[in-house]
């Protein structure tokens, strides 16, 4: 094996607002040798996720914050270069939280082999990855939609939202997406089969919710928070379920986060708002992946990936593009 | 029957902030005669409730707003003066939403006979009335506390909160009350058996929550909203249930209501926040009243009433005293 060089983005400072170049440090170092029980992975695709911004903050969250100086946390897919772990062999494609780097050494914990015959690698970060699994359990287990009900999804053109809305359709619901921009909204309806899409950048979200959700909103799958959460709370049907999956509108806030001023609509409509973290469903991931894969094969579900090339050097810029909402579907950085 | 004169408080204007004298009109008129199927009730006790403030606002809520010119809505207990309804006889004490007036004519809908042998009339507005029933279903059905869990109640010295905390104790939970003032806090612990009480006017609520709820808060029964809701959200245990029963801190706001800025703690802790309206449980009221009455008889539950005399003329002032938190237990105005 020739000497390999690893390249990494490490967290240099906790950002205030959007991450600046100075919040990152780019490091290079020789790739190490896997020890007994370990594998060496060459990363091919990085998953870029809105939640990454929240991992960069100090304070209590559902996962520990990334420490200053640590390689930035990221999920990815790579190929095993060398294995000293009996569960893996060189040449296999694997999924894991390998970090923003070219090579990773892992003991195999949390690493799973990816079937690239079933679908290309980026799909395993999208519809068949944590995005799809999040949409699956968040919508079905927490949202509990019934056929004929109206499901609203925010960040509907994002990796989780685009799947959640399609699952709502598969389950016989009316699906309304909220997204930013006419192109995304057209894509939701024409390519993914949503019943309606609301461009929050273009118009009055509440007026459009009244128009499209004439009987109110039974399930709201929220990835966004902020004013969009308030707009949907104002339109809840009786006994609605609000799934709090994320709050991307708030992650880059420099001011304190904005709480839903009209949360008393939960009382008015006898509704619930429930926080959801996909990791709690780890034991049931195979169930979700099997069903999602079936839907993909049958054509009931489409996986959208926004694959950006440019290598690891592009990571800081790519993350800003994600926060600017440039992607339709799963944002994947090809290394 | 000699000619009787009715006296009433009607809503004259929708208040901004606390209700001013000019928001009311005091009217007198001759008492009418009950028609076929109707009863004439002479009111003896009015129930004063924080929710009354919300009924005075225009806009979507769980009950229609009181209209301008309408007699202010209020629950009360009175004695039947005359009955042309086969279900009622003169001399009976009855509970109903009779309004802020001395006499009411009713067709009997929503009116129930009150057993003043079981307990004095004010108790039927408190522990055996909607306050107790709200505490019962809100805590047990929505909060679902398990023995050994920590239950926090806000406005714990109020009519609903004082019962909710005691039910938590009956069910084997640790009960922590949040109230305003040292006297109330002492009363919660010494008279009602709460494990601890936090005086939100005196100190750092979050620090005291850390001290008293060492393992976090499993159930929060919230009557208050505002910063207290945020303080408790910051201390939720995993899988906690937040019962939204009211938001008295917000009812008299002139500014837009304050939403919980840290609502993402619901995600961090995988908790839920659910709106609760007691009217949804109307079919099950007898079940609650039977159990509450049993606890009262056994001494497991104490009903606290703050009975104020002064007649109907005192109503506007009494309502302001309620909002200022002068009461310990159920605020009842004796007519």
TrEMBL record, chains A, B:
<dbReference type="InterPro" id="IPR011032">
    <property type="entry name" value="GroES-like_sf"/>
</dbReference>
<dbReference type="Pfam" id="PF16884">
    <property type="entry name" value="ADH_N_2"/>
</dbReference>
<protein>
    <submittedName>
        <fullName>NADP-dependent oxidoreductase</fullName>
    </submittedName>
</protein>
<dbReference type="InterPro" id="IPR013149">
    <property type="entry name" value="ADH-like_C"/>
</dbReference>
<dbReference type="InterPro" id="IPR020843">
    <property type="entry name" value="ER"/>
</dbReference>
<keyword id="KW-0560">Oxidoreductase</keyword>
<feature type="domain" description="Enoyl reductase (ER)">
    <location>
        <begin position="17"/>
        <end position="333"/>
    </location>
</feature>
<dbReference type="InterPro" id="IPR045010">
    <property type="entry name" value="MDR_fam"/>
</dbReference>
<dbReference type="InterPro" id="IPR036291">
    <property type="entry name" value="NAD(P)-bd_dom_sf"/>
</dbReference>
<feature type="region of interest" description="Disordered">
    <location>
        <begin position="14"/>
        <end position="33"/>
    </location>
</feature>
<dbReference type="Pfam" id="PF00107">
    <property type="entry name" value="ADH_zinc_N"/>
</dbReference>
<dbReference type="InterPro" id="IPR041694">
    <property type="entry name" value="ADH_N_2"/>
</dbReference>
């Amino acid at each position: 094996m020739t000497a390999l060089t690893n390249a990494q983005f490490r967290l240099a400072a906790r950002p205030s607002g959007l991450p600046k170049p100075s919040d990152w440090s780019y490091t290079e170092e020789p790739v190490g040798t896997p020890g007994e029980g370990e594998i060496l992975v060459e990363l091919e695709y990085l998953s870029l996720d809105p939640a990454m911004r929240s991992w960069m903050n100090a304070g209590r969250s559902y996962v520990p914050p990334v420490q200053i100086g640590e390689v930035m946390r990221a999920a990815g897919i790579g190929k095993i270069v060398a294995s000293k772990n009996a569960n893996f062999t060189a040449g296999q494609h694997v999924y894991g939280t390998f970090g923003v780097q070219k090579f990773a050494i892992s003991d195999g914990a949390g690493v799973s082999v990816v079937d690239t015959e079933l679908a290309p690698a980026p799909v395993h970060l999208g519809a068949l990855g944590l995005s799809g699994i999040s949409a699956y359990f968040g919508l079905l287990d927490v949202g509990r939609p019934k056929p004929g009900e109206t499901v609203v999804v925010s960040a509907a053109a994002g990796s989780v939202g685009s799947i959640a809305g399609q699952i709502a359709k598969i389950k016989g619901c009316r699906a309304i997406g909220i997204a930013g921009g006419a192109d995304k909204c057209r894509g939701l309806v024409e390519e993914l089969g949503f019943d309606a899409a609301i461009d929050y950048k273009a118009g009055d979200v509440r007026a459009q919710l009244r128009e499209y959700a004439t009987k109110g909103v039974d399930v709201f799958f929220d990835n966004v928070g902020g004013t969009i959460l308030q707009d949907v709370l104002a339109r809840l049907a009786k006994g609605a379920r609000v799934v709090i999956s994320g709050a991307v509108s708030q992650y880059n806030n420099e001011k304190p986060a904005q709480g839903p001023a009209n949360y008393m609509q939960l009382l008015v409509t006898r509704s619930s708002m429930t926080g959801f973290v996909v990791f709690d469903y780890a034991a049931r991931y195979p169930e979700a992946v099997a069903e999602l894969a079936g839907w993909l094969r049958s054509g009931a579900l489409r996986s959208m990936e926004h694959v950006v090339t440019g290598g690891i050097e592009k990571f800081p810029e790519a993350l800003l593009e994600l926060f600017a909402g440039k992607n339709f579907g799963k944002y994947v950085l090809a290394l």
